[in-house]
Structures are given as structure tokens and as C-alpha cells.
Amino acid sequence: MPQDDNELRELFRFLQQRGEVLLVVGEPRTISYLPITVAMDLGCTVAYLFSETPQTKACTIAELAQQMPDSLKVVPNDQVFSQLKILAESDEDSAHGITRNINRLDAVLTGIHPELRQALGGKLSNIGTLDLLINYGGPTGLKQAGRTAVLKFARNQSRKDPVDFIDAIFDALDKQTAPIPGPMTAEKIIKYVASHLKTLKEYRIGLVGDIKEMLVDFPVANE
Fold first, then answer.
1. pLDDT in tens, 122-167
2. What is the domain partition of the chain in residue ranges?
3. CA torsion, ordered 170, 176, 179, 183, to nearest 10 deg
4. What is the pTM of this model?
5. Cβ distance 35 to 73 under 8 Å?
6. What DSSP letter does each residue of 132-195 carry, written as one string?
7. Which of 35, 110, 157, 190 has the smallest set of CB atoms within 10 Å of its CB?
8. Is 50 helix (H, G, I), strand (E, B) or coil?
9. Per-residue pLDDT reduced to its tens digit, 47-56
10. How far is 219 from 131, CA to CA, in rounded Å?
């Protein structure tokens, strides 16, 4: 199911042309609440179907809903709609902000030090990596601090031993000998964007906690 407001509205309106629409959610504690909010806003019925397996496939949920309609618990719109709408809008905004800042950080690092960007790989937006960038900046700050200090800092921030990751970072730093253009400006930008990105990610985690807490209050969530 899409996670975009406009795409979801287009989907539900298309289905509504063919009859009444029922959105069945298999696990309210982990489901994205944007589809729920959009469905309710368009007048679709939303119901929960609980199963023993948390990660139930969509096709299985649909089959169970058809076979056991009495097990469906309809969401009371008047209790949750306004709260879900606020949370969904905030979550969508923060998700877009996270994507923009990841792209910006990626562009800055790729522009000044491609080898370092490659070493960070898919961990660029991890909290541990962001902490490194916030504390040291980019390649200039990392090299000035030195491997020993950076490794010590990373170990204090991580549950897993980050030695391989830090080794990869410093191997990458050694590969580039060309001077970095505007190093101080780049370092400031990296620190700022990394800090903003971490704040957005932590804020979004808080939103997920809010929706989970709200859903626990439903009688169905306690059954």
C-alpha cells in the first residue's frame, strides 16, 4: 500500500466507485497510520483483525477478514480520527524532512570526499553515524581527531563494537590526498544537517510511540 496521501486518496476513491470500502489492519501497533487516516477521512470503514503472527501478509489478512467477519473490530471514528489525522500529518512532514536532509548530507559528503561517503554506505542516516558527524563534522574534523579518539567516542555511543566501521572511515580518509574545497564551511554544514536529521528521526520515533500508546487504549488492542 502506498505511503503518500495523494496516492492513497486516489486508491480509495477508485475502490469506492465499486462499492463500500473496508480497510482491514492486521496489527495496529506496527501499521502506518497514514492509510488509516486517509481511509477514515474518505468515509471508509476501518477495522482491526488480530492474529497470532505479527507480520501477517496482506493477502492472508484479507482472507481471514472474509472468513471470520465477526472477529473484526471496527474503529470508532469519533474517538481516533482527529488524533490520527494530526499524527499522520506530522509524521508525513517529518518523513519528507528526513529524506531531504539525507539527500543534502549525501550531496555534501559526495561533493567533498567521495571515498568517505562510500565508506559510510547505508549507515549514513544511522544515529551512531550522525553522532560522529555532529561531534567531529566531516573528513577534516575526523582526521584532526584521529582514529583512536573517534573509535573511543563511537564505542561509547554504540552497543556493537564499531572498530570495523571506524577502520573503513579512516581507510577512506587516507585514500583522498586532494585538498578539500572550503573545508570549514563544509564541516559546519555537515554538523548542522546531521544534527537536524537526528532531531527529525528522534521526533518521528516519538510520533510512533504516541500512536502505539493511543492504540493500546482501544479495547480491541487489549484483547
1. 999 999 999 999 999 999 999 999 999 999 999 998 888 999 999 9
2. 5-75, 93-206
3. -40
4. 0.64
5. no
6. HHHHH-SHHHHHHH-HHHHHHHHHHH-SS--HHHHHHHHHHHHH--SPPSSHHHHHHHHHHHHH
7. 110
8. coil
9. 776 554 444 5
10. 40
